[in-house]
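Please, why this fold?
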Amino acid sequence: MFINKGNWKDQQIVSTEWVNESTRPHINAFFAGSEYGYQWWRGEKDFGNRTIGVFYAAGHGGQYIFTCPSLDLVAVFTSKVYGNPLGVVRPQVMMVDYILPAMLSLSPSPKKIESEPKLKSEYTGEYESKLLRVKLKIFEEGNVLSCKVFREQTKMIYESENRFFGTLQDIGNVQFKFIRDEDGKVDKVITKIGFAILQFEKIM
């Protein structure tokens, strides 16, 4: 009904105005999605030159109803992730990494890895998300950067300038983007997990 602007079997059940109002962003969120409407989360993902937007309902235990009007797609996840609060994000990761690319007929391709930066120590340190009250630690293990967050650890694979990616066992794929201050020093890292965008500020 919502994907058809409130219409169901040629009957207008809910007004188009309400569908538009309830699914547009009203506040910025900080974990389950990047924006929030009226009982609907919102997110988007870039695929080349195309940006795909979704709005979705998120329920207890990792249950989701994802709605993607531009692809005429509704995807439903039922799950019982009660003992792993971060596992509830996994359906978002599956949408971003597998379902949407399949709908766009994008075949999975290996990431093109550039030469790693020689000075890895500029990324290391402790970062904090003030909204979530969660810390993220980046450190070197041998010649590899690693990240510890949400009680999980992942190796950080270099992708391009100031960008890395990794995989958290209980969540899935995560992207890291480092932000520099006016002096060129790294002072923030933005992580993307599914449709969630989390910012951590460097404290040490």
Observations:
- Residues 120-202 form a domain with the Lipocalin fold (CATH 2.40.128.50).
